[in-house]
From TrEMBL:
<keyword id="KW-0028">Amino-acid biosynthesis</keyword>
<comment type="similarity">
    <text>Belongs to the lyase 1 family. Argininosuccinate lyase subfamily.</text>
</comment>
<dbReference type="GO" id="GO:0004056">
    <property type="term" value="F:argininosuccinate lyase activity"/>
</dbReference>
<feature type="domain" description="Argininosuccinate lyase C-terminal">
    <location>
        <begin position="365"/>
        <end position="436"/>
    </location>
</feature>
<dbReference type="Pfam" id="PF00206">
    <property type="entry name" value="Lyase_1"/>
</dbReference>
<protein>
    <recommendedName>
        <fullName>Argininosuccinate lyase</fullName>
        <ecNumber>4.3.2.1</ecNumber>
    </recommendedName>
</protein>
<dbReference type="InterPro" id="IPR008948">
    <property type="entry name" value="L-Aspartase-like"/>
</dbReference>
<keyword id="KW-0963">Cytoplasm</keyword>
<dbReference type="GO" id="GO:0042450">
    <property type="term" value="P:L-arginine biosynthetic process via ornithine"/>
</dbReference>
<dbReference type="InterPro" id="IPR000362">
    <property type="entry name" value="Fumarate_lyase_fam"/>
</dbReference>
<comment type="pathway">
    <text>Amino-acid biosynthesis; L-arginine biosynthesis; L-arginine from L-ornithine and carbamoyl phosphate: step 3/3.</text>
</comment>
<feature type="domain" description="Fumarate lyase N-terminal">
    <location>
        <begin position="12"/>
        <end position="301"/>
    </location>
</feature>
<dbReference type="InterPro" id="IPR024083">
    <property type="entry name" value="Fumarase/histidase_N"/>
</dbReference>
<keyword id="KW-0055">Arginine biosynthesis</keyword>
<dbReference type="InterPro" id="IPR022761">
    <property type="entry name" value="Fumarate_lyase_N"/>
</dbReference>
<dbReference type="InterPro" id="IPR009049">
    <property type="entry name" value="Argininosuccinate_lyase"/>
</dbReference>
<keyword id="KW-0456">Lyase</keyword>
Amino acid sequence: MSNQSNQILKNTNAQILDEFNASIMFDKELYAQDIKGSIAHSQMLAEQGILTLEEQKAIETGLLQVKNEIESGEFKFSLAYEDIHMAVETRLTEIIGEPGKRLHTARSRNDQVATDFRLYVQDKSLSIKAQLKELVETFVSVASKHTTTLIPGMTHLQHAQPLNFGYHLLAYANMFKRDFERFESSYERNNYCPLGSAALAGTPHNINRVSTSQKLGFIAPTSHAMDTVSDRDFALEILFNISTAMMHISRISEELILWSSYEFQFVRMSDEYATTSSIMPQKKNPDVPELLRGKTGRVYGNLISLFTVMKGLPLAYNKDTQEDKEGVFDSVKTMEISISILNEVIKTMIVNVDKMQNACKIGHLSATDFADYLVTKQNMPFRTAYYLTKDVVTKANSLNKDISELNIDEIRSSNEELKDINEEILMFLDLRNSMNARTSLGGTATSQTVSQIEIFKEWLKN
């Protein structure tokens, strides 16, 4: 191979290695956090006499100029910078000269990136919390309009017992409230400042980590430098929280897909969130809920990916953790847009009340009420009542009726033991009465659903 060919190969390999090693093209997402952390660090250094006030002022002014350049699009990111920290520091030094070289005193890129990334995760935890609260409010609002709308409650996707649609929607309100609480808990648990941990063992400089923490909005500094620079639990937590919330989004998406099908026709989605087939003009496909359901797998992958990166790392910092950010950035963006879209889908969907209520007449939803009546009013053992109820269901099937549509003679003729049953049983078989009979705490009765809505409304005020 010629010397020229060897040089070309070396240059090519060097370029590939630069691309492989650099993180600037994705960790530039952290520019605002990096600049915020650097300003706080410079202010603390000045307070401790490590920087002069003039140096600190020049650094802060220069950092704000870099921020403006990035946000205006004037700043040009390059692989030569390797990462966002070097990009900002290099440009700062170009602007203000010698004082820019003093900024990195008493810190390492290890604690710097841990701080930037934690600030990002904390910021996103707060914004996603706010979105989740808005989503809960939407579910509660729609639920409040349907506290008397009957819908078949299902287990194993088989008709089971009558519910009201508001009650069904509140199940999702509860899920998203738990998601809110998970983000809230994670925020509080991770609200500690890494800056000042340096490379892994702290620094001999006379720094004040409490001051830096306060300036950045943390509760306090982290307590162990080596754990701090290698810790990515906060990133795993937000990925887990997002994965759980996306699982809940996927579940309601699946129901929306079912409910909007010809077989159900319980809801109709706005044309904005469903599209026609490319060759079948009569079809309207639930594309948006299907995408929401599909994107859940994407965020699961990001969670497992970071778990896999972290599982074998020795203390302290390792370059492997450069792989911690892209998955988090991707999952956060997926979460933000998914919540926003689902919120609009729920707000704009049209509920087909008649279809829901007619579906309740399929599957003998008040059969359990018949058995409960025999237990409470006839003092029968439940197992005996269970088998007598099966006979009544068989009778209804033979007449092509739902159990709720039988008259008293048809019920009495279904089994000899029921020949004298009281006509009040017809009240128990009524579907609306069946739904409203479930008044236990957390039950589906309209009275209980209204109470649950009021509790949610109080929570939403806080």
